[in-house]
């Protein structure tokens, strides 16, 4: 309930922040909706908090020709309110509405959620489905990491100690069907199983990207098995087969929300139901 | 601003229309600042996992859980607590509809309901329930709370006043 | 006339304006206390090093068991519980030499601010030697690991409840069916985590306490500390819900008081939510046995073993359950041959207390599951089985096999009337049609007869001021129910005055001469009745004063709506009040300690449940039809149904206090799923048009616990209907269903 003793740095610019980050034991603070609960339980005891909120350069939604760039400190609520996100990144928009509750969405940020990499969070699966690119910056420079390479394990990402996630680049996928489906035990909870789907259908499946959360220690995308759906006009049987295959690829966790076997069953059913909806398959 | 561990941060925060200048530990939760430093005990603490919403206040007009905000994050910001909330119609509606029993969730619930009504022009019952699921009540079963909010929203689902 | 109307609650203004004062809101200068707790379920304490903790800035003291002297440990609720039947140790403030559950307080840290106290807690170094732990109650029975050495066994209570001729019953059975019925561990979780402030000055102890029973707490503190009750004041501030859990007196509470006495400075402690989840856990019991039935569905006999988990220590309120559950298992049914061995056993887990219903939910779940099992096994209808077994009106008042006298009621009548009003059969038909379309929708019902309105007495005082306003001092201790408004209604009606002239106070032992408190659904019955009788006495006194003013004999004085009259002359209520203060016997007041005894409300509830493809169970509708005697305020009564039913939804589908093999509670408030507005059903609540009043002067029987008493059985039955599977436990988890 009471965070441990810590220091605090409020930077005047991004470069100022990055310089400070090269010190030891500094934890960036954006919305705090994941960080502060951990501080309260004293799971984390950083020496300094680096407040990213003053950095206007991290709080933007910029639309380009074929991509949308979202700054790391954009809140979930801002994503929900944004016309650009609603129109050009509808999968992201749909998932943003499902994060936590209204109060959490008013503070929590997309960068915070991605950097935290909770295995049951929503955005990791979404950015993985989008093949989004994450821009990581340190005082030494910027590098771009693909979503598929960003998540390493539970609460573990590609971010180095002196790096900040500054923005995420999403492709504008015109003409794609989409769905973010999330199964929870109780409203506002983390996903028991969550599934992000983007699919381009033109008679047959031209492109399909499927990523799950809650079934592994990081977002799971069955890259190879996805390909089996390309250039096909899938039937319900094909979808069921697909669901069996992907479910056999993971070893979901067991916890207070549900057992591993239960999560596997949910994953299968969610896959069938969601793909049927997205690909327009009628039983 | 650099505050070393053990040192305090100098902040300025406007609460219910009054500016306060104080020195606070960076680790201090906003809810403790409001309750213990300013004596505004209307905002309650109900849990330690950011689940229950009893601590809900408005921060620059947006509803937030003040137990999950550090006071330093609210430096320069405007905070409205239940004591300063201009929501007479909503408060009356809560009383009329028996939307409270033990009263502990009530301040947070009213602040959140007020925010919900501000943000939305139309509110169906389902949308109200979705909008308040960050606020837990153990006594009422929510039906009367939803009724009270609907009453202010207008029976036709349109937000009035 | 206020009784029977949904009069608005008298004191809501402070709650909606943020002016409520729960114990943590009280602004007096105090030290703060926090606790060092054992991470292990069972361990020896080899040593405790507090030196580093004392060095933390702001820390005033760190006390362990050896530092806090008490005359006696915490006992049990002897008003209702017989210590002679129990093997237990009186709980001392802090663990001495040994810890027996993960979370047991081992040291108290006192400092000038909460954050420093928390820092110092981390710096207390305890050297534990782990011991094997017995976590499951079935294992504890074997006494392989003994938790309290001096008791030589883990079995704290072992009593057999036997009535009729069980051998006969089973000999004459057409069918014998084995049953195993379980409620898993729950956490009452009121919104306000409990707290206490203790101040000891000049030999006088003042305690602000988030409690349901200030006077009982005072007696306990008196006994524990050896301070006369007359030198102790317990003040109940606003209390943010309790559900029975705040009758429990914690060793943490005693540690705070002991520290305040030792330091000569006020000390306060407010539990964090994590601590509140350890402070009061509940239910957790299994009934395993068999039932004898005939082919018409008549329940001929019940025999078996009831096993109740106590956790590591016997709490103030835990003894109720194992002793009362068997008595109420027969419910409203005619079964007379019963043989139940009831045992309560210690485990190395957080201690168990009572929770809304306190034994009646456990008993009702058992008997209603038995009724449904009979229905399924004999392929009969749920309603038919109950009809076949119910006690009839011509048998009332009915003395149950264990001597409980059901005062009044028409069980069959309400069953039929209620199911009709709740449209049960239409709903069952509709659900069946929906299931044919592939939806997993189910409808369930269950009936309850419960025992409430516990005596032995309650206190009520009524005072009329010189301006004619009325002060009611009640021994009831409302903490959210709104029954202070019901009491005001009763008094206003008795005195025939405007309810806005009536003020109700409670909860301060200095102001209230005596009190038992609010629990067991007894406020509208016992407390309001004591106030009613006191109001009547006050009215008699007013009449005598009026008689003097009018110069007539008191027998000639009539009273109606604020006016006393006799022989054509009149004098007003206000004039009489003013005059009484000017006389030789100033003041008009009456104090009543009203004896009372239990009464038996009953009802039938129905739920509609839908299970989705993922096993997520949603209770869509919950409907109640109850005879709770006279309904003083239908809005307040309905509120109790809504709240109780929501807790039933929690118990049946969401809430589980999961204890791992190491005896640790592994859920936090984030995953102990209290229902939000999204999980909660739509409610419909009816009270019978012609209630059967209790013997209490108000005629009320009580409704506070009803929906949690019967709700879990209703919902589980609906889940069975929806899925075609059978469940005899709570909660039913999604993975049980798909």
Architecture overview:
The complex is a heterotrimer of chains A (283), B (161) and C (738). With 283 residues, chain A is an alpha+beta fold. Chain A is built from twelve helices and 13 strands. Chain A has helices at 14-21, 35-40, 76-81, 83-88, 90-96, 102-107, 110-116, 123-130, 147-150, 223-227, 236-247, 260-279; strands at residues 7-9, 26-29, 48-51, 61-63, 67-71, 133-138, 141-146, 151-153, 156-157, 164-171, 177-183, 193-202, 204-213. A five-stranded antiparallel sheet of chain A has the order 4-5-10-6-7. In chain A, strands 1-3-2 form a three-stranded parallel sheet, with helices on one face. In chain A, helix 11 (236-247) runs antiparallel to helix 12 (260-279). Chain A starts with 6 loop residues before the first strand and ends with a helix. With 161 residues, chain B is an alpha+beta fold. In chain B, 30% of the residues lie in helices and 17% in strands. In chain B, strands 3-2-6-4-5 form a five-stranded mixed sheet, with helices on both faces. In chain B, helix 2 (88-96) packs across helix 5 (143-153). Chain B starts with a strand and ends in an 8-residue tail after the last helix. With 738 residues, chain C is α+β, with helices and mostly antiparallel strands. Helices cover 29% and strands 26% of the residues of chain C. Chain C contains 19 helices and 30 strands. Chain C has a seven-stranded mixed sheet, sandwiched between helices. In chain C, helix 10 packs parallel to helix 18 (706-723). Chains in contact: A-B, A-C, B-C. At the A-C interface, helix 12 of A face helix 3 of C.
């Amino acid at each position: 309930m009471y965070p441990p003793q810590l220091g605090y740095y409020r930077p005047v610019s991004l470069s100022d922040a990055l310089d400070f980050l090269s010190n030891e034991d500094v934890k960036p603070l954006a919305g705090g909706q994941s960080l502060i609960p951990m501080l309260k339980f004293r799971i984390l005891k950083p020496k300094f908090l680096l407040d990213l909120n003053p950095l206007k350069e991290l709080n933007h939604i910029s639309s380009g020709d074929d991509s949308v760039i979202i700054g790391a400190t954009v809140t979930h609520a801002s994503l929900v309110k944004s016309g650009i996100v609603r129109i050009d990144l509808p999968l992201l928009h749909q998932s943003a509405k499902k994060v936590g509750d209204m109060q959490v969405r008013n503070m929590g940020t997309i960068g915070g959620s991605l950097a935290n990499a909770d295995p049951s969070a929503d955005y990791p699966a979404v950015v993985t489905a989008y093949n989004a690119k994450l821009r990581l910056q340190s005082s030494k420079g910027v590098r771009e990491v693909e979503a598929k390479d960003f998540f390493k394990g539970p609460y573990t990402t590609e971010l180095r100690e002196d790096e900040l996630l500054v923005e995420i680049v999403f492709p504008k996928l015109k003409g794609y069907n989409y769905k973010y489906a999330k199964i929870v035990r109780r409203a506002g909870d983390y996903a028991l199983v969550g599934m992000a789907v983007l699919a381009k259908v033109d008679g047959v499946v031209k492109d399909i990207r499927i990523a799950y959360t809650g079934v592994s220690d990081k977002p799971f995308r069955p890259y190879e098995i996805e390909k089996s759906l390309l250039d096909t006009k899938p039937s319900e049987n094909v979808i069921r087969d697909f669901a069996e295959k992907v479910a056999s690829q993971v070893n979901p966790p067991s916890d207070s929300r549900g057992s591993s076997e239960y999560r596997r069953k949910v994953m299968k059913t969610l896959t069938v139901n969601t793909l049927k909806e997205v690909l327009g398959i009628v039983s | 601003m650099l505050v070393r561990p053990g040192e305090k941060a100098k902040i300025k925060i406007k609460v219910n229309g009054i500016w306060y200048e104080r020195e606070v530990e960076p680790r201090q939760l906003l809810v403790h600042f409001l309750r213990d430093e300013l004596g505004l005990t209307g905002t309650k603490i109900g849990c330690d996992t950011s689940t229950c919403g009893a601590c809900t206040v408005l921060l620059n007009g947006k509803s937030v859980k003040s137990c999950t905000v550090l006071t330093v994050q609210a430096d320069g910001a405007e905070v409205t607590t239940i004591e300063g909330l201009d929501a007479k119609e909503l408060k009356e509606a809560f009383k009329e509809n028996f939307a409270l029993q033990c009263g502990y969730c009530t301040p947070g619930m009213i602040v959140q309901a007020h925010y919900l009504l501000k943000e939305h022009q139309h509110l169906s019952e389902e949308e109200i329930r979705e909008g308040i699921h960050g606020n837990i009540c153990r006594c009422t079963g929510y039906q009367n709370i939803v009724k009270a909010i609907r009453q202010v929203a207008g029976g036709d689902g349109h937000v009035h006043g | 006339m206020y009784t029977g109307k949904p009069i608005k609650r008298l004191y809501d203004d402070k709650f909606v304006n943020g002016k409520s004062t729960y114990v943590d809101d009280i602004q007096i200068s105090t030290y703060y206390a926090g606790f060092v707790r054992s991470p292990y379920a069972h361990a020896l304490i080899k040593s405790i090093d507090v030196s580093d903790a004392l060095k933390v800035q702001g820390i005033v003291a760190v006390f362990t068991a050896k530092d806090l002297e008490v005359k006696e440990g915490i006992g049990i609720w002897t008003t209702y519980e017989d210590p002679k039947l129990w093997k237990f140790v009186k709980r001392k403030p802090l663990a001495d030499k040994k810890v027996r559950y993960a979370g047991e307080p081992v040291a108290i840290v006192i400092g000038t601010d909460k954050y420093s106290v928390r820092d110092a807690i981390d710096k207390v170094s305890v050297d534990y030697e782990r011991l094997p732990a017995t976590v499951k109650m079935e294992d504890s029975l074997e006494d392989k690991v003994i938790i309290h050495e001096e008791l030589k066994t883990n079995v704290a209570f072992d009593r057999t409840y036997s009535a009729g001729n069980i051998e006969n019953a089973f000999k004459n059975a057409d069918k014998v069916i084995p049953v195993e019925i379980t409620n898993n561990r729950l956490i009452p979780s009121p919104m306000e985590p409990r707290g206490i402030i203790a101040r000891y000055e000049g030999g006088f102890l003042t305690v602000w306490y988030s409690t349901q029973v200030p006077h009982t707490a005072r007696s306990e503190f008196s006994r524990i500390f050896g301070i006369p009750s007359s030198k102790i004041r317990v003040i109940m501030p606003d209390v943010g819900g309790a559900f029975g859990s705040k009758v429990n007196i914690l060793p943490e509470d005693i540690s705070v008081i002991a520290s305040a006495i030792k330091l000569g400075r006020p000390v306060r402690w407010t539990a964090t939510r994590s601590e509140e989840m350890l402070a009061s856990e509940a239910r957790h019991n299994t009934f395993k046995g068999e039932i004898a039935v005939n082919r018409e569905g008549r329940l001929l006999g019940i025999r078996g073993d009831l096993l109740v988990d106590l956790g590591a220590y016997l709490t103030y309120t835990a003894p109720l359950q194992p002793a009362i559950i068997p008595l109420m298992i027969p419910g409203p049914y005619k079964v007379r041959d019963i043989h139940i061995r009831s045992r309560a056993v210690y485990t190395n887990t957080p201690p168990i207390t009572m929770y809304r219903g306190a034994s009646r939910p456990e008993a009702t779940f058992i008997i209603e599951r038995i009724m449904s099992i009979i229905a399924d096994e004999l392929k009969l209808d749920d309603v038919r089985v109950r009809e076949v077994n119910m006690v009839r009106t011509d048998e009332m008042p009915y003395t149950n096999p264990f001597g409980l006298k059901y005062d009044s009621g028409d069980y069959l009548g309400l069953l039929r009337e209620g199911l009709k009003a709740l449209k049960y059969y239409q709903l069952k038909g509709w659900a069946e049609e929906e299931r044919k379309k592939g939806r997993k929708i189910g409808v369930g019902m269950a009936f309850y007869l419960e025992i409430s309105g516990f005596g032995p007495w309650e206190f009520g005082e009524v005072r009329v001021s010189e301006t004619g306003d009325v002060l009611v001092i009640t021994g009831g201790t409302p903490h959210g129910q709104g029954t202070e408004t019901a009491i005001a209604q009763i008094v206003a009606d008795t005195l025939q005055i405007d309810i806005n002239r009536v003020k109700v106070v409670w909860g301060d032992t200095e102001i209230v001469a005596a009190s038992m408190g609010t629990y067991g659904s007894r406020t509208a019955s016992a407390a309001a009745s004591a106030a009613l009788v006191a109001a009547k006495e006050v009215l008699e006194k007013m009449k005598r004063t009026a008689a003097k003013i009018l110069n007539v004999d008191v027998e000639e004085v009539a009273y109606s709506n604020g006016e006393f009259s006799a022989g054509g002359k009149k004098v007003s209520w206000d004039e009489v009040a003013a005059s009484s203060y000017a006389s030789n016997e100033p003041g008009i007041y009456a104090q009543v300690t009203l004896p009372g005894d239990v009464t038996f409300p009953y009802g039938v509830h129905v739920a509609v449940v839908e299970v989705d493809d993922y096993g997520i169970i949603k209770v869509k509708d919950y409907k109640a039809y109850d005879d709770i005697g006279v309904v003083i305020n239908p809005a307040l009564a309905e509120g109790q149904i809504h709240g109780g039913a929501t807790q039933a939804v929690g118990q049946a589908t969401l809430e589980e206090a999961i204890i791992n093999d190491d005896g640790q509670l592994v859920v936090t408030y984030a995953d102990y799923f209290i229902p939000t507005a999204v999980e909660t059903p739509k409610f419909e609540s009816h009270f019978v048009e012609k209630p059967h009043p209790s013997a209490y002067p108000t005629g009320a029987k009580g409704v506070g616990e009803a929906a949690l008493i019967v709700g879990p059985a209703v919902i589980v039955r609906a889940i069975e209907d929806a899925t075609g599977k059978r469940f005899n436990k709570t909660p039913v988890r999604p993975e049980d269903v798909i």
